[in-house]
Design brief:
Layout (H helix, E strand, L loop, with lengths): L1 H23 L21 E9 L7 E3 L5 E6 L6 E2 L4 E5 L2 H25 L4 H34 L6 H30 L3 H26 L2 E3 L4 E6 L6 E3 L2 E4 L4 E3 L2 E4 L4 E9 L14 E5 L5 E9 L4 E2 L14 E10 L11 E6 L2
Antiparallel strand pairs: 1-12, 1-17, 2-11, 3-5, 3-8, 4-7, 5-6, 7-11, 8-9, 9-10, 12-16, 13-14, 13-17, 14-16, 15-16
């Protein structure tokens, strides 16, 4: 029994010694996948974070937003496609606005027809009717006057042959016929004068108002078709057919925020690198004419020289490379723009973050 205990103790002691030996072994560190960026300038250097963007004479990439809201009906371009200024990019469902524009066009045409009708007055047929009414009134007056003359002649011959009541009725009938003739003649003059000038002016204003309303609706209808504001390349298309868009953009389900419907970049062979120099280092920047810089692409060891283009002379909060809502420190930076020629053997895309050193 003691021998068994001795053997088990020896085995446990050996196992403990082996475990301690393995624990004491130091594993050599793995080589880095790529070398971290280093300062290539011996006389100091200013580090800055940068972002690759298309070559622009001013500003940044062009973000395309709609001016109206609606459902995307059709997308005419694809990412990476070159477009010319004025080319259609995207169509938003315009069925309601198109019906409204057509309705206002029809109303304007109806107002124009009514205006033409007023200007064409008097109508010959209306004049003929008014003339016939005058003739009828003249005939009625003659009849009444003849009856009155007969009643008066009989009364003069024999006052008892005609009653006073019959004579008065004949006088009244003649007076009524004369009044009717005056009304008929005035009505003829009214028809002959044509439309009242104030009616014409009122109709002209209504027509002008409807024409302008149709022009406004047609202009708004044109906003449902997004067109390229400039020559360039489609860098990104966020919207999808059937998705809802608004002037705030398109809701991105991944970032849970509003993004541009499309992003257009320059079609030039070169790219820009926008660097953000911390405000405490701005005074240490060299003269622009002698400025030199080098960038390192993250995830690789390639170092690419940069050519100075311009400085955006406005120190702004550093929110371009971070979420503005999550920013906790008020760090301000000066944007400095460099140009890089696209290397044939190196893949670089707009929106890529890079490390930049600016030589002093």
């Amino acid at each position: 029994m003691r021998k068994i205990i001795f053997i088990v103790s020896a085995i446990g002691l050996g196992a403990a010694w082996y475990v301690a030996y393995l624990s004491a072994l130091v594993q050599p560190p793995l080589p880095p996948a790529f070398q971290p960026p280093t300062n290539p300038y011996t006389q100091g250097g200013i580090y800055a974070e940068g972002i690759v963007e298309s070559d622009q004479p001013s500003g940044e990439n062009t973000n395309v937003y709609p001016e109206v809201s609606g459902t995307v009906k059709q997308i005419f371009v694809a990412e990476g496609q070159k477009v010319k200024k004025g080319a259609p990019l995207l169509l938003i469902d315009d069925s309601i606005q198109r019906a409204l524009a057509e309705q206002q066009e029809a109303q304007a045409q109806a107002a124009a027809t009514m205006l033409d009708e007023l200007k064409e007055q008097p109508r010959k047929e209306n004049l003929d009717v008014a003339k016939a009414q005058v003739d009828a009134a003249i005939a009625s007056l003659r009849t009444a006057q003849d009856a009155l003359d007969k009643q008066k002649a009989a009364f003069e011959i024999n006052a008892k042959s005609v009653s006073k009541d019959a004579l008065d009725s004949a006088v009244n009938a003649a007076a009524v016929a004369a009044a009717n003739l005056e009304v008929a003649r005035r009505n003829y003059d009214l028809v002959h004068a044509g439309a009242w000038i104030y009616d014409i002016r009122n109709q002209e204003r209504q027509y002008e108002a409807l024409v302008k309303a149709h022009a406004s609706s047609s202009a708004l209808l044109g906003k449902y078709m997004l067109i390229a504001p400039r020559d360039g390349v489609v860098l990104a298309v966020s919207a999808t057919v059937g998705g809802f868009v608004s002037p705030q953009g398109y809701y991105d389900s991944y970032t849970q925020g509003q993004t541009p419907l499309m992003i257009l970049g320059s079609s030039a062979a070169s790219l820009n690198v926008r660097c953000y120099v911390d405000e405490i280092l701005v005074s240490k920047l060299p003269q622009f004419s002698a400025m030199k810089a080098q960038m390192t692409i993250r995830g690789g060891n390639a170092k690419v020289p940069l050519q100075f283009v311009r400085v955006q002379p406005y120190v702004s909060p550093k929110i371009e490379l971070a979420d503005q809502r999550a920013e906790r420190v008020d760090v301000r930076v000066l944007p400095v723009i460099f140009r890089i020629e696209k290397p044939e053997n190196l893949k670089i895309y707009p929106g890529e973050l890079v490390d930049v050193y600016i030589g002093q």
